Amino acid sequence: MAVLSILLSLLLTTTLFSLSHQQLPLDSSEQESLYQILHSLNPTIPWRTLFPDDLCLSAPHGVVCDYPTQLNQTPHIVQLSFGYVSDETPNPPCSSNATLHFHLFNSFPYLRKLFFYNCFNHAPLSLSPSFSFPSSLQELVFINNPSLISPLASLLQNLTSLRRVILIGNAFHGQLPSQIAAFLNLEELTLSRNNLSGEIPSSLGLLKQLKVLDLSGNKFEACLPDSLGNLSRLLKLDLSFNAFGCRIPESLRGLQSLEFLDLSFNRFDSFGVPLFLGEVPKLKEVYLNGNPLSGAIPEIWENMGGVERLGLSEMGLVGSIPVSMGVYLKNLSYLGLDNNKLDGPVPFGLLEYGGEINLENNNLSGRVRLSTRVGQKLKLKVGGNRGLCLENIMGCESGGDGLGQLKPCKKTDVPDAVVFSGASFLLCFDSLSLLVGLATLAAGVLVFTGF
């Protein structure tokens, strides 16, 4: 059996060796164009000397060729990645004076992925209006290239095979072209931190395969089109830090797969927290911060138990914090309600599950009670609420920056019950105090009397 395995291994090795010697070399125009691109991105490295052979057999990290399935087929470059990311992704590094002649990419008719990271940071670089990348492209990524200045429409023209467009931290400008509706295979459109402006075309709602739409950090304005609610496969919608206005469209209830929603820091006006949020069952993160929505916090939380992070800061909210938030939002790791006009008490249920809660700069009042099993893992910020006091449970000192400025509550004649959890219960008392009385343990509640 061992001899058979050795023979099979030798046969496989011989076959692969034979195929490698029969494989045709990379097309000469592709090889030469790649040398020129590498030299323009970093002329300090002797690329031709370091990689003198067929670039499909020996090339820098980030250069990927297809592998012919039949003999006598010419290999082609299908992926190009430039810009050092990390030791795990050591793409060819770009120099400080990197430049590029984009017409060289016309030599790669089979190119499927193009990636640039932190390559163009100094001299302005723009695309010719007549230029277009190969129509074979499926993934186009430009990240942190602030001197790359070009209309978005010029970059995307004729690229109807695209599945992913990721343009982050560049200087692309202009409007989102309505022709983008022709990109029927598009699954991700991330255009954050550019100089884009104008309205979102209603034709965007035709992209039924879209799973990620991120237009954050631009200068988009006007109303959101109702057609966004047609993106039924959308998992992430991030429109934060723009100038969108009007009302948040009710049609967004159609985003039944949505897990992440960020509409923060726009100009959505006084229509309150959208009630349809309670009808989007898979939401995990919701951020509406910095929009003057005003109104009271609605009772929509019963069907939102999966929410883990909720940002409702700086919205002009009034009234009390619903008790139902503490009842149903049991998976919360972050809640932001700071810088509103909320009043009344802090629901004890909100403090039961730990995480981070920011209630600063409201008009809240009453007692802040922390159970001993939660106090050590809860980061609570309540400064700027003069009516709040900290209930000193069994003489324990308050900790954390958010509680340090709270005044202690006045002692009551009959102490409240202290909730605890098994062996994690911690009894704290001042070294000078004397505990007198009876301790009764029943049903998981420890009640001390006779202080």
UniProtKB/TrEMBL annotation:
Database matches in InterPro entries: Leu-rich_rpt, Leu-rich_rpt_typical-subtyp, LRR_dom_sf, LRR_R13L4/SHOC2-like, Plant_RL_S/T_kinase
Organism domain of life: Eukaryota
SUPFAM superfamilies recorded: L domain-like
Principal EC category: transferase
Catalysis performed (reactions): L-threonyl-[protein] + ATP = O-phospho-L-threonyl-[protein] + ADP + H(+); L-seryl-[protein] + ATP = O-phospho-L-seryl-[protein] + ADP + H(+)
Keyword line: ATP-binding, Cell membrane, Glycoprotein, Kinase, Leucine-rich repeat, Membrane, Nucleotide-binding, Receptor, Repeat, Serine/threonine-protein kinase, Signal, Transferase, Transmembrane, Transmembrane helix
Subcellular location: Cell membrane; Membrane
Topology relative to the membrane: Single-pass type I membrane protein
Cleaved signal peptide residues: 1-22
Enzyme Commission numbers on file: 2.7.11.1
A GO cellular component annotation in the UniProt record: plasma membrane
Transmembrane segments: 417-448
Residue stretches in coiled coil: none
GO MF, one annotated term: ATP binding
Location of the Disease resistance R13L4/SHOC-2-like LRR domain: 156-338
Name assigned to this protein: non-specific serine/threonine protein kinase
Lineage, uppermost ranks: Eukaryota, Viridiplantae, Streptophyta, Embryophyta, Tracheophyta
